Amino acid sequence: MSPQERIWEAARSLGEEEAQVLELLYGFGGRSCSTPEEVSRALGCPPEAVLKMETGAIRRLRHPRVLRSIVQALDDAVEEIWRALAGPNRLLFKSELQPTIEEHLPGELRVAVKVRYEAIQPWLEEHTCETPGAWYRGRYSCDELLHAIARIETIHSEICLPTPLSFLSQLLEMDLELLIPAIKLADSSSIYRGYLSNSSMGERVSRAVDIHLLFASKYIHECVTLGRLTKEYNLLHPNDALGPDEVETVLNTSSHLFRDAGWMGWCATGLPKEDLSYINSGPPSTPLDPDGRISRHQAKRSDELSKTDPLDLIRQILEEGPCHVSELDRRFEEKSSSAFGPKMLTGYLKASEDFIILAPEIFALKDHLSDPAILQGALPFLFTPRHCRLYTLFRHAGEPMDAYPLWPLMGEQRLCGWAESHVERKLFSSLLAIAEPQKWEAPRAFRDIWSFKKQCIGRHYHIALNVKKSAWKLRPALHDLFAIALCTQQWGYINWLRIEQILRPQLLHQIHDQTAVPLLALMIASNIVGPADHWQKMHRLNPEAEPLLTMMSHELQKKGNILWEDDAGRRLMERLKSGCGTTDLGWVDPAQMGNLLRSLRKK
Fold first, then answer.
1. What number of H helices and E strands is found in the chain?
2. What global pTM score does this model have?
3. Running DSSP on this structure, what letter comes out for residue 529?
4. 267: which strand partners?
5. Going by DSSP bridges, is the β-strand pair 355-359/362-365 parallel, antiparallel, or unpaired?
6. Which of 227, 296, 374, 528 could pair with 344 as two cysteines, CB 3.0-4.6 Å apart?
7. How many CB atoms are closer than 10 A to CB 86?
8. Can you tell me the distance from the alpha carbon of 527 to that of 531, in angstroms, rounded to the nearest whole number?
């Protein structure tokens, strides 16, 4: 027999009328409870008589002969009673302990609790762990829960918030079954969509969580442009629609969750591997003072342009057709009269999904991709010595032919044909060195002719840059190294041009810049990437890099930044020292690498 059946049987040992009073008042058998007035009408007696019979029935059920079976039934129903009171959270907050809470119990169990304890609170004191704010019952002891609560209250000063519960569980080596109630009971703590936050969480924190979850659901291994992020966020949260500047503010102020990848967009780190977005606890986010704007959005604007959107100005220029960045920059400065801050066109071009890079340094509206006539009209931009050099550098660095929309339309064979009579000999020879005539969509005889030219003229790549001594004097920041490594993990490779686009996004490519040299050298020595025979070539991700990147990601999540003098920096330095002696460094000069490591240790 079930506990409820045994309690009902004990009630039936009373007189028929008293048993019927209990059954009706408490709703035995899953029936709804009746009021004393309703029972009095059903039995044909005054309400006062009904209450008197209830009191007598409870008193007689406390007789030792009957009470024994009721106590045993209650002991067998402890978990059932707890589930009815606390639900799936395994917590019953004292603020929720209303006189009517016993109505959550089946009628038979309510009678049994009244018989033995008179009220529910003594039952809670006997069968649960009492904390200052709530009662808890689970597979963890009261001491374990109280220790977990104390640990949560100290973690706020040790890590950056918000942070995913899955990361916190791993960091504290605490099961979610214990972690979640501990957070709910800890002071100044709340949970928003599966992330730990302060209880005074503002809108910026909730937005950071929402954007982080957007990455987790759609862009786990991708960098996403600011324009696309803004569009996706507004589709998911129409009641909190944001502009690109507001989204960028959220990203910049949550550096432990997001990394700026320059022209490549934004990447997210520390994404939760388990969907806990259904877990919430604590007050909802409250509006704070208006979000601070990044510098270019704080510039004072003239009255004439105070209502003009800089993105609209760029659209107006590009509506006339694709444009080289130098011309775009000149026309934007003329139209804006510096009202939006000097030299900030780069930021605006990244801020909208409406803009697209057709080829290096060539911008257009995204809508232009569907108009063949506009694309054909943009091809002359590609037949210049400047673009020929850029194309050669990008392809030599491992970028595929479809890296930019205009390249397949241009066709490598057309560029080679034009370059033969329009660029200096070393550049043409270098172009042939990276060209792949046998892959061209052209007659066999034509491909064979150019393959022969490649053998004769394109045997050497002449525009490669040797590493300057000054490049080894650069001291890369560890957080920059991590940003590059994170992008490498997502793409499967990295090259010097992508590093330039991530760390120093500019309108014009700095083709003589060697900022990437020490970064690539450090990544080779730490086995994040494999070596190449020249620093300007592609470097592929090493599959063994995963543990190191995870360690760096965890350090970033905790502190919001990673430095050479931190635990992560020291551990990486040890790996670098070891790698210099055992790893194939490829193009890296071991002596210069040693000097670089010594300077980083001094730093």
1. 30, 13
2. 0.82
3. B
4. 259
5. antiparallel
6. 296
7. 21
8. 9
Q: Name the one residue in this structure whose structure tokens are 């730490």.
A: 526
List C-alpha distances in Å: 10 to 66, 73, 108, 114, 115. Answer: 6, 10, 10, 14, 11
Distance CA 196, CA 162 (A): 5
Contact predicate 569/563, CB 8 Å: yes
Instruction: Report angle CA 570, 549, 561 to the nearest 5 degrees.
Output: 60
- Decide if 138 contacts 179 (C-beta within 8 A): no
10-residue stretch averages of pLDDT, the chain, 603 residues long: 90 88 90 90 89 93 92 94 86 82 89 93 92 91 94 92 95 94 92 91 92 95 91 94 92 93 90 92 57 38 55 93 93 74 73 92 95 96 97 97 96 96 96 96 95 95 95 93 92 95 86 94 94 96 90 87 87 86 87 91 71
Torsional class of 538: left (φ above 0), alpha (ψ -120 to 50), beta (otherwise) = beta
Contact criterion met (CB below 8 Å) for 294 and 187:
no
CA distance 554 to 113: 49
What tokens appear for 151 in the block?
């640990």
What span, in angstroms and rounded, lies between the C-alpha atoms of 503 and 515?
A: 9
Q: Which residue, among 392, 391, 415, 388, has the nearest Cα to 404 in the 3D structure?
A: 391
**Residue 93 host element (H or E):** strand 91-93
Peptide bond before residue 290 is cis, with ω within 30 degrees of 0: no
d(CA 228, CA 437): 37
Q: In what order do the strands lie in the sheet with 163-164?
A: 163-164, 195-198, 189-192
Q: Which residues fall within 8 angstroms of residue 598, CB to CB, at 6 or more apart?
A: none
Q: Alpha-carbon Rg of the chain, whole angstroms? A: 35
Q: What tokens were used for 61?
A: 């059920």
